[in-house]
Amino acid sequence: MLMETTDPFLKTRLFCPGPTPVPAEAKQVAAEANIYHRTEQFYREFQRCRELLGKLIGAKRRPCILTCSGTGAMEAAVTNLTSAGDTVLTINAGKFGERWAKMTNAYGCDVRTLALPWGEPCSPEQVSEALRRERPKALFFQANETSTGTYFPVKEICKKIRSEFDGLIIVDAISSLCAHPMDMDAWGIDAVVAGSQKGFGIPPGLAFIALSERAWGRITSRPRFYFDLPREEKNQTEGQTAWTPASSLVQALKVNLEYMDQIGFDNIIAHHANCAAAVRSAAEALDLKLLSPKSPSQAVTALLVPQAVDGKKLTKILASKYKTVFAGGQDALAGKIIRFSHLGFVDRFDVLTGIAALEFALADLGYKSRLGEGVKAALKKMS
Ligand SMILES: *Cc1c(COP(=O)(O)O)cnc(C)c1O
To answer: Ligand 1 center to residue 67 CA distance, Å?
Structure first.
């Protein structure tokens, strides 16, 4: 079977949950890369980013911008907010939940895990019960488990546990920010981490971390250097970063954040909800099941690959023949799911294109469905 494209006009399109498409204006400022970071101009741009990030996250105290991928901000949370020997609770319902456990374990924490089948959301009651059982100093979980396309009900979880749990609540919102609401202070969250190449539509290289007043009051005395948040915050507030920041990305971030602020963060979230709903309609029309039907993510939809179709070939053919880059599953889900991201600067017509490509690729692999049924269902949902 023909796996390579014969169409010289095809553009490469990203449907993977990070990196997400970068809008033209942001690309341009990043490409110019003509700013020195120890200047008043950069300081103003940097503070504007911090201000808008705080607004988006619902954090009164401005988040720190770090030069690293999202995992770096996760690590900053662990090294600044835990000590070796601390009991911590992680929720493992996918690849990224597993990462919190591995990371806190690497830093000598006594790690307890609330394990759930991959694709299941966790309920506030389950979290509350686990906290009562394990009595940890900190709880680590994902707002959106990207590996399974599952959204955890963050607001409901926090509402249930905040009054009964005095420890720190640390949320990896790397793939949920911009696609799902976040109101950190109001919900009683102590740390939120995020990354640039997900909802923010800029290339990888920046990560964000916001801490509550309570978390700032509980910074531990572990040895650390690059990710020393008290030093970083002091520097960032006084107009410098501790180290050379990825300044071109900061400039691109400012462009996108200001655009998003103009649209309104609530409207951005509603847009993601609409795109996700359109993809789910298409899936239903094509008889493709969701991995996580109970609490599907608005950032990325995980679809079960039909029995008769080779899932690894599916992502391969989508990329090589249609130049549409989707992510498959990881570990036990390898070859079993395909992940359709609608996170970041993805518009309605991008979504339709993704569905069309998926229909073509499924047909190439012998899947019986009438071509256009998915696109038609999505179009109807959008109108
Ligand atoms: C992408 C992602 C990460 C990892 O971020 P990197 O930028 O790859 O380090 C962590 N958690 C979640 C939920 C993610 O989606």
So the answer is: 14
Nearest alpha carbon, ligand 1 atom 15: 175
The alpha-helical segments, DSSP class H, found in the chain are 24-32, 40-57, 70-81, 95-106, 124-134, 154-161, 184-187, 213-216, 229-238, 247-263, 265-285, 311-320, 348-364, 373-382
The CA distances from residue 323 to 35, 101, 299, 305, in Å, are: 34, 35, 21, 19
Q: Which atom of ligand 1 is nearest to the CA of 197?
A: 7
383: pLDDT strictly greater than 90: no
Task: State the Cα–Cα distance between residues 245 and 344, nearest whole angstrom.
Answer: 23
Q: How far is the CA of 373 from the centre of ligand 1 (A)?
A: 33
Distance (Å, rounded) from C-alpha 95 to C-alpha 147? 6
Rounded Cα distance, 124 and 161, in Å? 7
The model's pLDDT over 74-106, given as tens digits with 9 standing for 90+, comes to 999 999 999 999 999 999 999 999 999 999 999
- Three-state DSSP at 150 gives strand
330 Cβ closer than 6 Å to some ligand 1 atom: no
3-state secondary structure of 94: coil
Instruction: Tell me the CA–centroid distance for residue 186 and ligand 1, in Å.
Output: 24
Band (1; pLDDT cuts 50, 70, 90): low
Mapping DSSP to helix (H, G, I), strand (E, B) and coil, where does residue 216 land?
helix
Instruction: Decide: pTM greater than 0.90.
Output: yes
359 lines ligand 1 (CB under 6 A): no
Determine the residue of 90, 95, 172 to mutate for testing ligand 1's pocket, defined as the one with the most ligand atoms within 8 A of the Cβ atom: 172
Does residue 2 carry a pLDDT above 80?
A: no
Q: For 195-215, what is each residue's pLDDT tens digit? A: 999 999 999 999 999 999 999
Percent with pLDDT over 70 in the chain: 99
